[in-house]
Design brief:
Shape: elongated
CATH topology of the largest domain: Immunoglobulin-like
Strand content: 25-35%
GO cellular component, one term: mitochondrial inner membrane
Radius of gyration: 24 Å
CATH architecture of the largest domain: Sandwich
Strand order of the largest sheet: 3-2-1-5-8
Helix content: 25-40%
Largest sheet: 5 strands, mixed
Number of helices: 3
Number of domains: 2
Main location: mitochondrion
Subcellular location: Mitochondrion inner membrane
Membrane topology: Multi-pass membrane protein
Cofactor: Cu cation
CATH superfamily of the largest domain: Cupredoxins -  blue copper proteins
Oligomer: single chain
Length: about 220
């Protein structure tokens, strides 16, 4: 989860988030190199007083500053397109979770089981372990399993976001969107509604508890 003063990403809890972090580092490396080079050139131009009035054109220089930026854009575009298609990839899922946004809480349905559904409200301040992030009913899902998450809304626009999983999908009334989720390890992951949906928009946290398959089966059996 994010903490005060945290400047980096949260630890990736899914292969998708790890790929997003890798792409960010890749892009930032290129951007820093460009910034340093351009700053050096500007500094040299400002501090250098030599002039050549006979230079009207420079084919080599123009070729250089056309080809090199094009290559840099390709180095950024190809990984970006790969990641874009990876985010939209929906493989055969082993489990389906349906998330419905309301003003101002979430409700969840486990479509593969009978009568496994519940509403998830934010806990009062006195009962919260993490302020504005804890809920009375957490999502429980097994890690290492391909999961399909169906997302919709019952009233207004919402957005189901889980930063440590690299997921953010709009919840639109009358429409069902879907994302795929695969968790790397057990743990507790936090998210929030990321679309302004009214007065209590800030009080719609999402808590995902990642457990082993055996623990998940026991949880479903005891529900």
């Amino acid at each position: 989860m994010a903490t005060w003063g945290m400047l980096s990403f949260q630890d990736g809890g899914s292969p998708l988030m790890e790929q997003l972090i890798f792409f960010h580092d890749h892009s930032m490396t290129i951007l820093v190199l460009i910034t340093v080079l351009v700053s050096y050139i500007i500094l040299m131009i400002v501090s250098n007083s030599y002039l050549n009035r006979n230079i009207m054109e420079g084919q080599e220089v123009e070729t250089f500053w056309t080809v090199i930026p094009a290559l840099l854009l390709i180095l950024i575009a190809f990984p970006s397109l790969r990641l874009l298609y990876l985010m939209d990839e929906i493989e055969g899922s082993n489990l389906t979770l349906k998330s419905v946004g309301h003003q101002w809480y979430w409700s969840y349905e486990y479509s593969d089981f009978i009568d496994v559904e519940f509403d998830s409200f934010m806990l009062p301040d006195d009962d919260q372990i993490f302020r504005l992030l804890d809920v009375d009913n957490r999502i429980v899902l097994p890690w290492g399993v391909q999961i399909r998450v169906l997302i919709t809304a019952a009233d207004v626009l919402h957005s189901w976001a889980m930063p440590s999983m690299g997921l953010k999908m709009d919840a639109v009334p009358g429409r069902i969107n879907q994302v795929t989720l695969l968790m790397n390890r057990p743990g507790l992951y936090f998210g929030q509604c990321s679309e302004i949906c009214g007065a209590n928009h800030s009080f719609m946290p999402i808590v995902l508890e990642s457990v082993s398959v055996d623990s998940f089966i026991n949880w479903v059996s005891s529900y």
